[in-house]
């Protein structure tokens, strides 16, 4: 007999609701707890999971496996090539292990919800209880409704309701204990499961040796690292977060997104830890940096609520249907220049090169390059959304889709389409000294003063030209005017 927890995007032992409940159930029944992770190359493919993210997940599994082994809990890992076969294979395994209960944390993406629903039914037919519990959000989708009883489509009122809900139900910030140690007999009984190997990445998700080395030193895996990062951030930097967070050269953000996306850290732990650092011991009031950071973590919840309520956003459809008719440009050359950071707009290029080198990009810059792609280049925002997923170590469908919707004005935010970021002004405002640009665009390293933001326009362009830095692929005003006209036209057709 046994109880099983199925790990997905929750690769941690601490504050993991499903794992905790599974452990309690196993204890109550006096049977061992088995943990399982299914590697699905087709899921990686279908979700456009970046190779750097796949590598991070596989490295995290090593840490998790060792942590669980210390508790005599096996982490059984198996690759199932065809994603459709996953439920059937899980049922087989449950049968082999004599499992009476299967626990998992719910994922709100459409495919995952469907898969889980069918698995719950199939388990039931075999007399196995499957519990799929909400865990990834601090406040679960469905808990917050506006005065009219509907899902909020605007962040600010939603956020006020989110804060009020947490203050009212303070227990939702209680953290779940790590699982208890298995009885010793479990190790003997399930010896073989402890030996299951962590596979190498599927062929099309492999990194080069140089990339492996680079990403491994940049992004150490596992929940211990996540907790240390969170602690360091809350002890040292969170106080300055609200003043510095928009300046990409200042390194103010926590860089915890990679851990939230893989589930090596729970959003509950983040909010709880930040709150406990606040003088008010609340989500609001007290230290400004803490309030602001919590409100950013809340954005992650917000976009998951949006996705859970309007699942069509998972199907390549803009949140605002009236934006379906915009006629996008599909200019491959310009898209390539954007991807490679060769647009001639230094701030855009610096940001894209940061993404390509680190698998991460600063939030302000994500907005700048997103807006530039959708507005100035008038490229289909879904091309940018896809490129981000294929390269981000923190790729998360709901946040990425929400972010792209914001940039292209096709999303949930009420921002009108005619508010278009001016990349030059953004650059001057948020990277005034040009430090971020110089770091990522070596061709412009030697340029001093204001010309760094516009080397051909303001500067004489000699230095940039000598170093092979490209001229602008689109003029700001022309790009802007074309976007305004095209959006208007598209809306007219709606
Ligand atoms: P911090 O500033 O320290 O914030 C803490 C946490 O709050 C983040 O880790 C993240 O979980 C959450 N958060 C902060 N800002 C946002 C936001 N705007 N939306 C949702 N959650 C937020 N975030 C992802 O996690 N995955 C993505 O794939 C992703 N794609 C994006 C695409 C675009 C076009 C845009 C504009 C934003 C995107 N974001 C995404 C949101 C945001 O840029 C990142 O979460 C943030 O930059 C991560 O860095 P950090 O952990 O240092 O953030």
UniProtKB/TrEMBL annotation:
UniProt remark on cofactor binding: Binds 1 FAD per subunit.
Q: Which residues bind FAD?
A: 241, 293, 296-303, 394-396
Task: Cite the record's Basic and acidic residues compositional bias ranges.
Answer: 455-472
Q: Where is this site: Electron transfer via tryptophanyl radical?
A: 328, 381, 404
Going by the UniProt record, its keywords in alphabetical order are: Chromophore, FAD, Flavoprotein, Lyase
> Photolyase/cryptochrome alpha/beta domain: which residues?
1-138
Q: Which GO terms describe its cellular component?
A: cytoplasm; nucleus
Q: Residue ranges of region Disordered? A: 452-472
* Keyword Magnesium found: no
Q: Which family does it belong to?
A: Belongs to the DNA photolyase class-1 family.
Q: Report the protein name in the record.
A: Putative Deoxyribodipyrimidine photo-lyase
Q: Which organism was this protein described from?
A: Hyaloscypha hepaticicola
């Amino acid at each position: 007999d046994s109880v099983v927890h199925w790990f997905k995007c929750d690769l941690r032992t601490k504050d993991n609701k499903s794992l905790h409940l599974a452990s309690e159930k196993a204890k109550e029944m006096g049977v061992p707890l088995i943990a399982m992770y299914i590697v699905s190359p087709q899921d990686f493919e279908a979700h456009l999971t970046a190779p750097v993210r796949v590598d991070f997940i596989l490295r995290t599994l090593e840490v998790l496996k060792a942590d669980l082994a210390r508790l005599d809990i096996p982490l059984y890992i198996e690759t199932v090539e065809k994603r459709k076969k996953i439920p059937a294979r899980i049922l087989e395994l449950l049968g082999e292990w004599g499992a009476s209960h299967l626990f998992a944390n719910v994922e709100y993406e459409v495919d995952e919800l469907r898969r889980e629903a069918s698995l719950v039914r199939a388990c039931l037919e075999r007399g196995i209880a499957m519990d799929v519990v909400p865990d990834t959000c601090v406040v679960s989708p469905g808990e917050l409704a506006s005065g009219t009883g509907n899902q909020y489509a605007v962040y600010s009122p939603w956020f006020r309701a989110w804060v009020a809900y947490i203050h009212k139900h303070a227990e939702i910030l209680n953290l779940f204990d790590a699982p208890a140690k298995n009885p010793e007999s479990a190790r003997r009984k399930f010896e073989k499961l402890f030996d299951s190997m962590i596979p190498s990445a599927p062929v099309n998700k492999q990194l080069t040796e140089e990339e492996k080395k680079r990403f491994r030193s940049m992004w150490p895996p596992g929940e211990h690292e996540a907790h240390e990062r969170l602690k360091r951030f809350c002890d040292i930097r969170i106080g300055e977060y609200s003043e510095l967070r928009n300046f990409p050269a200042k390194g103010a953000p926590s860089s915890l997104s990679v851990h939230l996306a893989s589930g090596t850290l729970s959003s509950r732990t983040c909010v709880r830890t930040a709150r406990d650092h606040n003088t008010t011991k609340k989500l609001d009031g007290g230290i400004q940096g803490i309030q602001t950071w919590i409100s950013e973590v809340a954005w992650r919840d917000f976009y998951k609520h949006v996705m859970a309520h309007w699942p069509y956003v998972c199907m390549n459809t803009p949140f605002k249907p009236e934006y379906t008719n915009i006629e996008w440009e599909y200019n491959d050359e310009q898209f390539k220049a954007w991807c490679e950071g060769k647009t001639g707009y230094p701030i855009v290029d610096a940001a894209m090169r940061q993404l390509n080198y680190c698998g991460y990009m600063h939030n302000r810059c994500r907005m700048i390059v997103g807006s530039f792609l959708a507005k100035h280049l008038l490229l289909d925002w879904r091309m940018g959304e896809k490129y981000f997923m294929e390269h981000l170590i923190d790729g998360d469908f709901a946040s990425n889709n929400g972010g792209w919707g914001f940039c292209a004005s096709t999303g949930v935010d009420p921002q009108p389409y005619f508010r278009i970021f001016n990349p030059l002004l953004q650059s001057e405002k948020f990277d005034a000294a040009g430090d971020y640009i110089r770091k990522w665009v070596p061709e412009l390293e030697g340029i001093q003063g204001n010309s760094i933001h516009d080397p051909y326009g303001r500067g004489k362009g000699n230095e940039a030209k000598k170093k092979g830095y490209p001229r602008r692929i689109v003029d700001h005003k022309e790009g802007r005017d074309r976007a305004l006209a095209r959006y208007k036209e598209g809306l007219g057709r709606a």
